[in-house]
Amino acid sequence: MTAPGPRPPRLLPVPAVALWSDQTVHVPQLRLGSQGIYSTGPEMRDADGLLWPQVFGPETGEPLYAVMDPLKQRRAMEEFRCQVGMGPATRTPLGVLWALPLLRGTDEDPPRDWEKGVLTTEPPVCLAHARVAVRKWLRLKEGYAAFFVQEAELYAIKGTFYPPPPIGAPPFRTTRRLDDPEARLMVADLLVRRLKKATPIDLSDPDLTRDAAPCNRLSREKTS
Fold first, then answer.
1. Residue 166: what pLDDT?
2. Of 33, 93, 167, 214, whose CA is between 20 and 30 Å from 64?
């Protein structure tokens, strides 16, 4: 009798905000106008009028777990959607669920100041998919902490800044607040929220996730 072979590893869903290898993030040719930078062709702008890149290509090939699709990241952050399933993130009386990289307390990576507010580009998660996020995203795989957050203000964008003439400096990556006039000189690729009033939780607690349903299944049930 032949002994059974090893059981194949359980497949986990690819986070919905991950970019795929067959996709391309495209920044159109830019011009400088009185209101900031603009494209002479089709543009992708958000509700604040800020410029975003375009994403072309099918979600095929290999998932790039270290890279987020800028348009899906923006949608997840704007609408409090789970970064894995793109359904509603878990929300309780304590707030919305976030899993954030574990900090090391160095000068480059200082402890979080929740009174001042914690800036993050990580979208929220639902309880059922939280374990996928902490296994698949590179920053979270190196260590994470989970919180229910009561205040999550849309605060800034990260992206490429295009200095206007006469400076003539090359473009560079930076962060600008949403109300900063210089944000009009950027192509954004990540939306930033400022988090406050956080309650830490333990995602390894089985009682916390035992009855949690995947957020995308809940979304399908509501529309059926």
1. 76
2. 214
